[in-house]
Design brief:
The chain is of the alpha+beta class. The chain is built from 4 helices and 5 strands. Strands 1, 2, 3, 4 and 5 form a 5-stranded antiparallel beta sheet that branches.
Length: 130
């Protein structure tokens, strides 16, 4: 995606792995960025396996990685993501940031301005989840 010449508003959410809700331990595993004006919605995610093993050695890493992949397919609108992936980008982002009690949760949406959503996503991922 070519950078815009003037800043455009965007929203982002951090995906977190929550292996044990009772302990409220969270590990950042990804960032989703949505820029409505540019029609941009993307998710960058990576399972923090080494850190996860330290706080939750019993966690099923394959299951969690599969869930991250499924969420990525939905956010990207991949047909393999099923009915949720068929929703428009705004609705997919809304689904992602809706509160949930699953092992992968997202933070409330944060906002900002950018001229290049793709570069912004890379920057946020490196700072918050990479």
């Amino acid at each position: 995606m070519a950078p815009e010449t003037r800043p455009t508003p965007f929203a982002y959410s951090i995906l977190q792995v929550v292996p044990c809700i009772q302990r409220n331990e969270r590990l950042n595993a990804g960032v989703a960025l949505f820029c409505r004006q540019l029609g941009y919605l993307e998710l960058k995610a990576a399972l923090p396996a080494e850190k996860l093993r330290l706080i939750a050695p019993e966690a099923d890493l394959d299951d969690i990685a599969g869930r991250l992949e499924e969420i990525t397919r939905i956010v990207r609108g991949d047909a393999a993501g099923g009915a949720l992936a068929k929703m428009d980008p705004s609705d997919r982002f809304g689904w992602l940031v809706a509160p949930s009690s699953t092992i992968i949760q997202s933070t409330p949406a944060h906002t900002g301005m950018t001229t290049d959503p793709e570069a912004e996503l890379d920057r946020l991922f490196a700072r918050l989840a990479g």
